[in-house]
Amino acid sequence: MKKSCRLFLVMATCLFMLFALGYESSAQQQDSRFTAADGGTVLDHSTGLMWAATDNGADISWEEAKTFCENFKGGGHADWRLPTLVELDTIFDQNSAGRFKTFQPITLSGCCPWTSDSRRNRARSIFFMTGEINTYDKSTTSSMRALPVRLAR
User: Fold this and answer.
1) pLDDT in tens, 13-27
2) Is 101 buried (19+), middle (13-18) or exposed (0-12) by CB count in 10 A?
3) pLDDT tens across 69-98, in order?
4) Cβ(12)–Cβ(4) under 8 Å?
5) Which residues contact 111 (CB under 8 A, 6 or more apart)?
6) Residue 63 main-chain phi, psi, to 5 deg
7) pTM, whole model, 2 decimals?
8) Host H or E run for residue 43
9) In a 10 Å sphere around its CB, with 0-12 CB exposed, 13-18 middle and 19+ buried, how is residue 109 labelled?
């Protein structure tokens, strides 16, 4: 009986250590995934995308968001645009303790950044409190934001 208890304790300790090391490694990978860059920008090394570090900071319609992104000059670059739904989803962090669940150092002042995914008078967004994908009329402004993105070269 003593031998089996000791074996159980050794196995449990090993499993705990493997889990703890795996968690630490995952956290370290997330820490190194994003790098704050010049001019209020953030580089995502995993996707090769460069993001504005913050959104536009106020309610905005889809057309206004598109224009805002196209005119954004962060980091001295002029090729900014609205993100696609797939791109925007890459910065959603379900484990974030923040109100709007983004990977740091990207921050949002409102729940729902617009995407370029649109059809007629409607466009898509992600609700950054839950990760839910929604479709809104392009004239909607309440809590909608513009978060510029570009392909880093």
Assistant:
1) 444 444 444 444 444
2) buried
3) 999 999 999 999 999 999 999 999 999 999
4) no
5) 100, 127, 128, 129, 143, 145
6) -60, -45
7) 0.81
8) strand 41-44
9) middle
